[in-house]
Design brief:
Elements (H helix, E strand, L loop, with lengths): L1 E11 L4 E10 L2 E6 L16 E4 L4 E4 L1 E6 L12 H10 L2 E6 L10 H14 L3 E6 L13 H7 L3 E2 L9 H13 L5 E2 L4 H4 L4 E2 L2 H6 L3 E2 L2 H17 L3 E3 L5 H12 L4 E5 L2 H4 L21 H13 L4 E2 L8 H4 L16 H10 L5 H7 L2 H7 L14 E5 L4 E2 L18 E2 L2 E7 L2 E5 L2
Parallel strand pairs: 1-4, 1-5, 6-7, 7-8, 8-9, 10-13, 11-12, 13-14, 14-15
Antiparallel strand pairs: 1-2, 2-3, 5-16, 16-19, 17-18, 19-20
Helix pairs in contact: 2-3, 4-7, 7-8, 8-10
């Protein structure tokens, strides 16, 4: 099968391309990018079997990559399944997603990793990269079998949702993962400081009379993991950065050459703890929504490259976990279907250029995961996302492909929409 995406604005940060041109796909590979790829001087098609898709006025970018999502299967299929999560992914423009291990049972062994991959293959939508647990049962006591998990298909290691409180265990995890050339993805939270907290500690938590989670619970663990990585000479990736202190620590570490990467999520770029004044449980996330000063710092870190990646932190929950008193509500919000549109608001506000935003959702994410994705180079996997920069749309959680509806962005008007998602040369989602 040969497909030509004709006349779109191709933005490929991996090649520093931002120009109007065509993209030619042959089979499951990118064949070429350029102008008038399959026309002769008289404008006649050279290949009568060619499928031409007119994408003039659209953006053509490498398939979006989400390095932090929760698919819930096995164990919590009423919240999400691999298939429904992949449906949400391709609807949001994502061709590759990395799923966290906090399933039931935890993805801490070969059988769970292989099960997730089988379910993803059966769904036949986005490419799924399972992130396996750092510790058995994510209990922070003993390392999982990293080598066996890599052989089974694990793309990295994390106890996301549960911090690795034992510094010695984290040191061994970084050393072991380094020997396998896989990333360790760190959820940075000191439970001794955050225990019992329901939202960011500050003026708003005082006004609402709710116990707070101080920013230092994040900052201390960011500093700890950076220092461990610096000491043992390995890399470390920091999840969902939300505090000004964490940004400052990351920036200083990068300046002295530490191999640290970091991500944030749209909620930490667009919402503050003021959103909790209505006790909306869809705004209860971990780490919590922070102050306006923290949001400004995270935006600055994203702009200057201290934070390289925007991830969705897609965390589906059913009404059972969310339609309860705030104290008892689960933390997390869905994000695969809104991440692109929400993140594009940073382009509208001049925080990032279109190319800078696409880099943070494609090639930068691929580098963290060490996967051959995020590019439109000749011979690369034909993963392509087409974005309509003029298609405004209103978020309606009832229309989500995800099984869950826990989003505080219901009713928001978003400025752009993914209208075509191609994975391995095959169209998986289209609004064209």
């Amino acid at each position: 099968m040969t497909t030509l995406l004709r006349g779109g604005r191709v933005i490929d940060p991996s090649q520093k391309i931002d120009d109007v041109m065509d993209v030619l796909i042959e089979g499951n590979r990118i064949a070429a990018t350029g102008r008038n790829l399959v026309e002769d001087a008289k404008g006649r098609k050279k290949d009568p079997g060619l499928t031409v898709i007119d994408v003039r006025g659209k953006l053509v970018v490498p398939g979006l990559i989400d390095i932090h999502t929760h698919l819930r299967e096995p164990g919590y299929e009423y919240k999400e399944t691999v298939e429904s999560g992949c449906e949400a992914a391709v609807a949001g423009g994502f061709t590759s997603i990395a799923c966290m291990p906090n399933t039931n049972p935890v993805n801490d062994n070969r059988s769970v990793t292989e099960f997730i991959l089988r379910q993803a293959q059966k769904a036949g939508l986005a490419t799924v990269y399972p992130i396996a647990a750092v510790s058995r049962g994510s209990e922070g006591k003993a390392l999982t079998e990293f080598g066996d998990l890599k052989e089974a298909g694990a793309a990295g290691f994390s106890d996301d949702g549960r911090p690795v409180m034992h510094a010695g265990l984290m040191k061994r995890a970084l050393e072991y993962a380094h020997s396998l050339d896989l990333p360790v993805v760190s959820h940075c939270e000191d439970w001794q400081l955050s225990k019992g907290g329901l939202m960011n500690e500050g003026l708003v938590s005082t006004e609402l009379g709710m116990p707070g989670i101080p920013t230092i619970s994040e900052d201390i663990m960011v500093m700890r993991d950076i220092l461990i990585a610096e000491y043992v000479g390995t890399s470390v990736h920091i999840c969902h950065v939300s505090s000004a202190g964490a940004v400052r620590i990351l920036r200083q570490a990068r300046e002295r050459g530490v191999r640290v990467t970091a991500e944030t999520a749209p909620q930490y770029l667009l919402l503050t703890d003021e959103a909790l004044k209505g006790f909306d449980t869809s705004c209860k996330v971990n780490p919590p929504l922070r102050s306006a000063e923290d949001v400004a710092a995270v935006r600055a870190g994203l702009r200057d490259g201290t934070i390289e990646v925007i991830a969705s932190d897609h965390a589906p929950h059913s009404a059972i976990e969310k339609e309860v008193e705030f104290e008892y509500a689960a933390s997390g919000m869905v994000g695969l279907e809104t991440s692109l549109g929400l993140s594009w608001k940073l382009v509208e506000e001049g925080v990032l250029t279109p190319s800078e935003l696409i880099a943070r959702m494609t090639v930068n994410a691929a580098r963290v995961l060490r996967i051959p994705k995020g590019t439109l180079k000749k011979g690369a996997d034909a993963d392509v996302t087409v974005i309509d920069p003029k298609k405004t749309w209103t978020v309606d959680v009832r229309a989500f492909r995800s099984k869950s509806r826990n989003s505080p962005f219901n009713g928001w008007k978003l400025p752009v929409k993914a209208v075509l998602t191609i994975v391995g040369g095959e169209i998986k989602y289209s609004e064209l």
